[in-house]
Write a structure and sequence with these properties.
Layout (H helix, E strand, L loop, with lengths): L9 H12 L3 H22 L1 E4 L3 E8 L2 E4 L6 E4 L2 E8 L1 H7 L1
Antiparallel strand pairs: 1-2, 2-5, 3-4
Helix pairs in contact: 1-2
Length: 97
């Protein structure tokens, strides 16, 4: 039976970044955290953050719509709201697929 692949953990990602860049694990972890903070602030401020080679994180408006309560079957109104969406770049798709 083949082993199931598992997703890379944050610690594994930090270790890989440190090994590939020559940074210490502490510096690699700090860089990763700063990148996340920059992305959050940029999306909040400009509604969009581009991570070159990966894609775009953006705020999108979802319209109000009618839905159903699965327990009772009753129709309910779902209000409009803002949601986060990530669009994968063509370069990332080509590299992975």
């Amino acid at each position: 039976m083949a082993d199931k692949a598992t997703a890379m953990t944050k610690n594994e990602l930090v270790s890989a970044l440190a090994e590939k860049t020559g940074l210490t694990k502490k510096d690699a972890k700090a860089a990763l955290e700063v990148l996340a903070q920059i992305a959050y602030k940029e999306v909040k401020k400009n509604k969009k953050f581009t991570l070159p080679g990966f894609g775009i994180l953006k705020v999108s408006k979802r319209k109000a719509r009618m839905g159903r309560n699965p327990a009772t079957g009753e129709s309910i109104k779902i209000p409009a709201r803002n949601v986060l969406k990530f669009s994968v770049s063509k370069a990332c798709k080509d590299a992975v697929l």
